[in-house]
Amino acid sequence: MAGLDAIDEFESPWFSRALAGVLALVAIATVASLIPGPQWWLRIFDFVLEVLLYVCLIGGVLALWADRWRWKLIAGFTLFGSMLLALIWPYVVVAPNEIDLGKPEGAECFSLLTLNVLQENDQYDRTLDLIRERDPDMLLLTETNQVWLDRLMPVLERYPQRMAEPLDNTYGMIFATRLPVQRAQMPMDRIADLPTLYATVTIPNAGDFELIGLHPRPPKPGEDVETRNQNIIEAGAKTPDGLEEALAIGDFNDVPWSKTTEQFREMGNYGDPRAGRGTYPTFPSWAGKFGWPLDHIFVKGGLHVRNFAVLDDVGSDHRPLAADICMVPESSN
User: Cβ(269)–Cβ(91) under 8 Å?
Assistant: First the structure.
């Protein structure tokens, strides 16, 4: 009898109305994400497209028990679910892989780790332990102020090449590597008050590549994304030394299926290791598979991704992102 009572609750008018309300919200968010423009209240919908797809899947199944508008609800969830699937299609696990993973024959590799530490996070030891355990050859940390720089110095001292721009506005940056660095700079965007990393780095016995480290401002109330979009697109369009091999990493405050990141990739001819393998969300750290992929690793030219992974929570609102990057010496090509 308890099971029948539960079915009766599903078949109540309130259940149908609740599903209709959810469908209306999905429709509004989906349509809003399709509207071009830098307004924060439009671009914020880009972030939740994957979550909305899950809502459509669940809503479509629950609509089978609706006593009112059953087929209209099923049709609505199916329609918008199909639209959402098309919008994020390259990052669905059944989509074709964009780039192959693995170490090409004769390649030399290095490990990297990137993390937005969350400036207000005071669990410094968890990040220290992560860096000690992973011992990456290259490290990019964002949201780092002077306190974070000081607290991390016991592990940063392991790296002969270091550059930092500690800031108290949540846009500080730390770069450290044991690879030889030919040149490196962190020019400040005086409008957005944030740095961008440009470096030319050598993989011993392989060759040089250019590195771009990004952490632009996100869409939020009172702050549209013209500056973020410009920062992302211009950073990848032309690297300082114009090398064919380039690596772009960091917290982009943008999802990979957005028009901005798509334009960044198209202009720079970057490949994404996630495409065809899933979204690999990194934010918020507690959300797991239902979060947003805001942290990125893109490669182009002769750079290859051997493997990559989103790591466990270390106290920040972002999860760390790690990868092994490889390059085949020109003489081996």
Answer: no
Identify the structural domains of the chain with CATH numbers, from first to last.
2-87 (no CATH), 108-332 (3.60.10.10)
Q: Return the closest-CA partner of residue 226 out of 213, 217, 235.
A: 217
The first and second tokens of residue 326, run together, are: 């490889």
Taking the mean position of all CA atoms in its chain, how far away is CA 225? 16
Is the per-residue pLDDT at 163 higher than 50?
A: yes
Q: Note if the bond before 160 is cis, omega within 30 degrees.
A: no
Using the Cα atoms of residue 301, residue 302, residue 303 and residue 305 in order, give the sign of their dihedral: positive
End-to-end CA distance of the chain: 71
Residue 208's nearest CA partner among 181, 178, 177, 240 is 181
Cα–Cα distances in Å, from 141 out to 27, 55, 327?
37, 33, 23
pLDDT band at residue 3 under the 50/70/90 scheme? very low
State how far Cα 103 lies from the chain centre: 23
Sort residue 304 into left (φ over 0), alpha (ψ -120 to 50) or beta: beta
Nearest C-alpha neighbor of 197 from the set 173, 224, 177, 216: 173
Q: 236 and 266 in contact (C-beta within 8 Å)?
A: no
pLDDT in tens, 239-270: 777 899 999 999 999 999 999 898 888 888 89
Distance CA 294, CA 282 (A): 6
The band of 215, judged by pLDDT with boundaries at 50, 70 and 90, is very high
